[in-house]
Amino acid sequence: MVVLGEDLRRAAHTALAQCMGVSSGESVLVITDEKLREIGYALWDAARFLGAEAMLIEMIPRTRNGEEPPPAIAAIMKAVDVVLAPTSKSLSHTAARREACAAGARIATLPGITREAMVRTLSADYARIAEVSTKVAAILTSGKTARVVGPSGTDITMSLEGREGHPDTGIYRLPGDFGNLPAGEAYIAPVEGSATGVIVVDGAMAGAGMLEDRITMKVERGYVTEISGGQAAKALEDAIAHLGKPARNIAELGVGTNDRAVITGKVLEDEKVLGTVHIAIGNNVSFGGTVDVPSHLDGIILKPTLVVDGVAVIEDGVLRV
Fold it and tell me: Which residues lie below 8 Å from residue 126, measured CB to CB, with a gap of 6+?
């Protein structure tokens, strides 16, 4: 039996009622694993309270972000109205998630979320987050070229031409809607082969957490050609070595828009921090790209300047939208 605190119950209720818009009689599936069992139970309990046909499945933890869930779980995902996935590794960039959304499920993933992060970030003003995220996504959509510069040495340019920016608003109430909870970003898949320059991750890195030593990635023609730094850099290299060139693709350019988010070492929250930029490598087929590989790893850049078609969207970590 899991004993829930009142603060966690309130956060779970916000997720189900406000963010997902769950109503009585809807079918809700919560997918979790051992490390996030408490969060999974809280979301299931909130769904039950709202009168939903609530189901909770605990699976064996996946080994990496983007790894598929068991086929039986993937099948259930396509048969329900709502899916919430508080899991150790992200199910966001999986075929199971994409196919479930195509079947009409509205889905929120919560990879690696902690009790503290859930209580803090689900008290944010999601109407405001949605407004800002939508504005930034529109700028990315209309943009042709983006340049990111950071005080630690980041200087990278990429093409956005023909690609669509996406707002992660935290409001997922229509069939097929998808995003993270906590939410708060705008993101886009840069044109494959277009990115050139250097990325210096100085905030946090998916799989490595908060960084003691910066990770430097040299990028040529859209792919990371060299990774250097300390232990975190070595861990990143080891994590993608067996996946080949696709895992080195510059997959995502994202902007954080959640003023309640802080750098904690959990990429789910880290990438939402207001005024940060994150650049991911690996899979981007889920949001308009062409690279499909079972890996998607975000690196967070602190106090960046982001310029789209000559106009500053972020300047030294301050969002100008």
Answer: 18, 19, 169, 170, 171, 183
Looking up tokens 């999601």, which residue turns up? 126
Mean pLDDT of 282-298: 95
pLDDT in tens, 48-105: 999 999 999 999 999 988 999 999 999 999 999 999 999 999 999 899 999 999 999 9
Residues 298 and 238 in one domain: yes
Residue 127 has pLDDT above 90, yes or no: no
Residue whose C-alpha is closest to residue 2's, from 41, 29, 59: 41
pLDDT at 126: 87
Determine the pLDDT at residue 96: 98
Q: Which of the listed residues 87, 105, 121 is the one where a domain comes to its end?
A: 121
Indicate the pTM of the whole model: 0.84
Cross-strand partners of 311? 308
Same domain for 62 and 211, yes or no, is no
Longest dimension (CA), the chain: 56
In angstroms, rounded to a whole number, what is the distance separating the alpha carbons of residues 81 and 318? 38
Please check whether residue 303 lies inside any domain of the structure: yes
Q: Which residues contact 250 (CB under 8 A, 6 or more apart)?
A: 156, 158, 190, 192, 195, 219, 222, 223, 224, 279, 280, 281
Sequential DSSP letters for 167-179: EE-S---STT-EE
Does residue 146 share a domain with residue 94? no
The CATH number given to whatever domain includes residue 42 is 3.40.1830.10
Nearest Cα to Cα of residue 9 among 42, 31, 35, 36 = 42
For 205, residues 6+ apart whose C-beta sits below 8 A from its C-beta are: 211, 215, 232, 236, 267, 297, 298, 299, 300
- Parent domain of 253: 126-319
In the chain, the number of structural domains is 2
- Domain check: are 48 and 88 in the same one? yes
